[in-house]
Design brief:
The chain has 320 residues and is α/β, with parallel strands linked by helices. Helix content is 37%, strand content 23%. It has eleven helices and 13 strands. A seven-stranded mixed β-sheet has the order 4-3-2-5-6-13-12, with helices on both faces. The chain has a four-stranded mixed β-sheet with strand order 1-11-8-7. A two-stranded antiparallel sheet has the order 9-10. Helix 6 links the parallel strand 2 and strand 3. Helix 3 packs antiparallel against helix 10. The structure holds N,N,N-trimethyl-histidine. The site of N,N,N-trimethyl-histidine has 11 residues, from strand 11. Pfam families: Methyltransf_33. It is an enzyme of class 2 (transferase). This is L-histidine N(Alpha)-methyltransferase.
Amino acid sequence: TKTASIRLVDLDEDGVDRAFRADVLAGLSQQQKAVPARWFYDDAGSQLFEDITKLPEYYPTRAEKQILSSRGEEFAKLIGPGRAVVEFGSGSSVKTPLLLEAIDPAAYVPLDIAGDFLRAAAADLSAKFPGLPVHPVEADFTKRVVLPPEVRDTPKLGFFPGSTIGNMVPWTAADLLRSMRETLGEGAMLLIGMDLVKSKDMLIAAYDDAAGVTAEFNLNLARRINRELDGSIPVEKLRHKAVWNDVFSRIEMHLEAMEDIAFTVSGRRFAMAKGETIHTENSHKFRRRSGNLLLQAGGWTPVKRWLDKQRRFSLILAEA
Ligand code: AVJ
């Protein structure tokens, strides 16, 4: 299998719009066309992802919530009170409270590149936990982040739920884990979600649901390119495709041309032959050994691993 590797443009460098344009133009110029998955999440895409989490076929969100709501006592014992919880990505309305309730933290520090989501998540959490200091930080957490002075001397717990780590190829994932370790400092712990390898049928169904919500989520990326980058992609001639890549243990999402097409993006011309695809997402699935190996490659030592009742999803606690 041939894979595309794309150099991500630095978000701080030129601003989000220029980064989006640069990623898309570079990605569409490759032999295997590809756009990094992080560009799914404009307002429409974020809403569609919310809808995905409620689909009967999309088990990861429910499975992870089940672990978080049933293992509170173990979290409390292994993590202890008084840590600053640093969440990578804006807090999801349901998962974060389950963790915070269990461990009696000293502060909550959500990190996100999207300021609006960040402020909304921070306000939400403050309302639910009136006594808890909340320090949102607008930052690109793929690099080392300087945390607010209020939590400088507080031991940290990093929280990275959702199996978002699975969107990255292993070397990028290991880099991210190392950055997190630098951001979190001495004595830190990390609680991270990793989706598990399971039957191909269950995996494909989770990424190609009967209601077509995941298809809309995928197609929205092409619509976003048209909207924001003055594109003329004929979206109605693309179809959503989810495939299992057994070599890399991952679900891949693609947008496949149903006939020969040509279009422009920001004044540049592109063509796709019938059957050619734009690779839009990797979602790696883990086993105990592969998950532990990845954590160790990123500088973390696994401490404890929990699965949901149906053994579909894992949550791993690690220490620096
Ligand atoms: C939010 C990245 C974990 O990979 O399962 C859901 C995104 N893509 N359906 C995942 C997603 C298609 C999701 N993550």
